């Protein structure tokens, strides 16, 4: 037990890295290199993607060191979608990719939630990113709380992003968890979720879920291996306990398994 931890409870199965499901995608809001090192030392096994939010990568003083640290811990560094949108606005997409290559990013997020980037142009950028060897996270949804795009429009865009070459599809929730996938009060838009989980893109979606209640809801609805994004660094262990049914919000995940085991 000392080597790998206790094993006397029956818990939901949890995949190990490199994962193709159950991704934990964290949001770096501008943390110091020391803070990143300490989180990775403790929890790297639970973290798959590390997004440097918004445009923080552009001004991060220790960018090269942070990216190298992430890669050393088998955590994929990713740029924020807003940075690429700004580059597009200024006609500097090629320069953005040169920067991302120089810095050692493995992933880029391609979004259009902050600008009027046309969908066709988004797809062109996805294809360009793929041709340069980047793993693409294509985000769908606006950062404007008043822009309630229909579920059908979301699904159409997600599926077309997948066709353009995106590896993962991100359902917008922002850092606040009050836009996109959620209403202004942080409640999940069930009609939208119903549409997403029944689409052919379902297995590739990363649901931004910064609030614990949102994480728990999605885990209860979609299981312990749902992909969750925009997780705060302080919440990494908390999310892992939710995934494993070790917290009151998701205790049923483990209980259901225990009932099944006893029945057999």
Task: Summarize the entry for a quick read.
The chain has helices spanning 33-43, 56-59, 63-72, 81-89, 93-103, 119-131, 151-164, 190-197, 212-222, 236-243, 251-263, and strands at residues 24-28, 49-52, 76-79, 107-110, 135-140, 168-171, 205-208, 227-231. It is an alpha/beta fold. It has an eight-stranded parallel beta sheet.
Explain this structure.
- It is built from eleven helices and eight strands.
- The chain has 264 residues and is α/β, with parallel strands linked by helices.
- The protein has one domain: TIM Barrel, CATH 3.20.20.70.
- The chain has an eight-stranded parallel sheet.
- Helix 1 packs parallel to helix 3.
- It is globular, with a radius of gyration of 18 Å.
- The C terminus is likely disordered.
Features:
single chain; 264 residues; alpha/beta; TIM Barrel; 8-stranded parallel beta sheet; globular
Architecture (CATH level 2) name: Alpha-Beta Barrel
Shape: globular
| Oligomeric state | single chain
**Helical stretch tally:** 11
Radius of gyration, whole Å: 18 Å
CATH class: Alpha Beta
Briefly note the CATH topology name: TIM Barrel
What percent strand? Answer: 5-15%
Total domain units: 1
What's the total count of β strands? 8
Layout of helices and strands:
Blueprint: E1 24-28, H1 33-43, E2 49-52, H2 56-59, H3 63-72, E3 76-79, H4 81-89, H5 93-103, E4 107-110, H6 119-131, E5 135-140, H7 151-164, E6 168-171, H8 190-197, E7 205-208, H9 212-222, E8 227-231, H10 236-243, H11 251-263
Parallel strand pairs: 1-2, 1-8, 2-3, 4-5, 5-6, 6-7, 7-8
Helix pairs in contact: 1-3, 6-7, 7-8, 9-10
């Amino acid at each position: 037990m000392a080597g790998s931890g206790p094993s006397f409870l029956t818990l939901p199965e949890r995949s190990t890295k490199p994962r193709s499901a159950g991704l934990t995608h964290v949001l770096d809001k501008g943390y110091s290199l020391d803070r990143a090192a300490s989180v990775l030392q403790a929890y790297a096994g639970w973290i798959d993607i590390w997004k440097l939010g918004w445009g923080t990568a552009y001004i991060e003083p220790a960018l090269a060191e942070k990216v190298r640290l992430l890669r050393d811990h088998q955590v994929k560094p990713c740029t924020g979608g807003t940075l690429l949108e700004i580059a597009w606005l200024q006609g500097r997409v090629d320069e953005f990719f040169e920067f991302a290559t120089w810095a050692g990013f493995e992933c880029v997020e391609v979004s259009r939630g902050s600008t009027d980037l046309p969908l066709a142009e988004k797809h062109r950028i996805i294809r360009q990113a793929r041709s340069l060897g980047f793993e693409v996270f294509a985000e769908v949804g606006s950062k404007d709380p008043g822009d309630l795009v229909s579920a059908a429009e979301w699904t159409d865009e997600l599926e077309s992003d997948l066709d353009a070459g995106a590896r993962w599809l991100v359902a917008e929730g922002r850092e606040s968890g009050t836009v996109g996938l959620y209403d202004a009060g942080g409640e999940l838009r069930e009609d939208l979720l119903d549409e997403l989980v029944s689409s052919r893109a379902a297995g590739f979606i990363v649901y931004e879920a910064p609030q614990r209640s949102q994480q728990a809801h999605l885990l209860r609805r979609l299981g312990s291996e749902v992909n969750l994004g925009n997780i705060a660094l302080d919440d990494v262990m908390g999310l892992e306990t939710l995934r494993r049914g070790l917290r009151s919000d998701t205790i049923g995940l483990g209980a259901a398994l225990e009932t099944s085991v006893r029945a057999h």
